[in-house]
Amino acid sequence: MKFREFMMNPDDLKTADLKEILNRLDSLEERITRLESNKEQINQVQAFPGKETEEDSDSVNLNFSQSSPFETNLGEYGLAWLGSIVLFFAVTFLWQYFNDSGKPLISFIVGIISVAGVFTMSHYFRKNFSYLSFVFNLFGFIILYYIILRLHYYNIKPIVTNQLFATILLLMMIGVQLYSAVKKQSQALAGLAFTFALITAFVCKQSQPFFLISITTTGLVMYSFWKYNWWKALIFILCISFLINLIWLFQNSVSSVKISADLTYHFAFIYFSITTAIYSLVALRKPNKSYPGNLILLTILLAGSAYSILMFALVMRYFPNAYVPFFTAISIYCIAYSVLLKFYSQWKFAPAFYALFGFIAISVTIYGNYHFPDSFLLLICQSFLVLALALWYRSQIITLMNTFLLLILVIAYYNISGTLQAVNFSIPAVALFSARIINWQKERLNIKTDFIRNIYLFTLFFSILYATYKGLPGQYIIVSWLFIAGIYVVLSIIVKSFKYRWMAMANLIVAAFYLFLIDLASIDLIYRIIIFLFFAITSIVISVYYVNKLKKKNVDIKIEQTYTIEEIL
After folding, report:
1. What is this structure's pTM?
2. Residue range(s) defining the domain that contains residue 19
């Protein structure tokens, strides 16, 4: 210790130590401030590497922030696709030039060199320009597929004359592309490979290879969705396969040999059904955050719609009079699969959709066997069976769709025929029992309004009037309508529903109009007397019932008010 420090008293030593500590803290704070300032300058330089002045930096920052979204997307994505498309056409035109010049071997070599160059650029750009590398890789496979395709197909002087060998080359190339897609986990590359497979099946122009390649591709698409959640590829290939199948179906001429054509299109029915059944497996997939929640519903609706259009085209063009076995098989499959989904699927709508599709197929089968109007009786009775199935499934969807289908069926029956007594009386019977079941089991069906039940009651009201009008002699029509009004009143008492009372009064009004406008001029005097007496008795009885009901209701209200006053006092 120095002599000066030794001669200082303890208080002076403490003051000196405190000053030294404060000086060190100040120096540390100053160093931290300088470091933060240097860090901000480094970040600004990295963000704007060409700035010279602070003013220039501010202006560049403003302009860049305003134009960056559009300019960046256009420069990075748009120009990458534009350049790749132009490059594709340049290669194909160059290939076409040598091929048309009678030098197919040179054209093939040029194509291979071009493909190798594109893949080389994709590999070179993979670190610094990842998206451009991806686009080059995609177009490399497109160019390669085009070159291999033109070795045999769509070529007047093909290099590969054997169609089987050319098809195998295409499939091998697609297999390599799928392997690359799985290795890179690229859904876009896999979707492109699946599209190439469907195009290969189409260009074969032979039914059996077309069916086999397409079914195998559909299976691979479903496997990729199940394992890698590639749902975009699933939807895309479903739409593309539908268009290809529709084109294939209409491009074949009917002028071929009838037996072979029938056999081919019987196979087409099997192929369409297997393909749709593969897509239907999505209903067994458990919910997952890796794909949208409405994807399963969308896939089922798209597959069902595509299958319906294909089957309609197939039947109308090739089997207009022999389609019953097809729809019988469809109905059996759909009903059985809906039962399976009832136990094993976590999607509540799936069993309902397949059950409805199955019953529609049953309806087509019934029509094919009995035709109109004889098939209406079975179709209307089937509506009641569908409602029973809806109770088992606890499905509001089946109930609602069955209601509208029955309404359409009834309207169609009245427009087409309306003369079969069995059908005329079956319609109100089915409507009455359906309305009662829906009211009885509305909690099980999760029905919170009376909309569906009201449709059945309206159907019951008008159909029973029509059935008695068509089925009974003229002098008994009014009597039957009055009797029906009495039944409505009894039903309103039993089930305690005001709707049947309204139906009874409406029935009386219709009967009154019919009595004064039509019956008075057409029936004998004795029948008039009987009808008027019966009408008067029925009206008076219903009036007495309403008077008693109103008196009882008023007494109940007064008693309730008395109890309320006593409680207040």
Report:
1. 0.72
2. 3-47
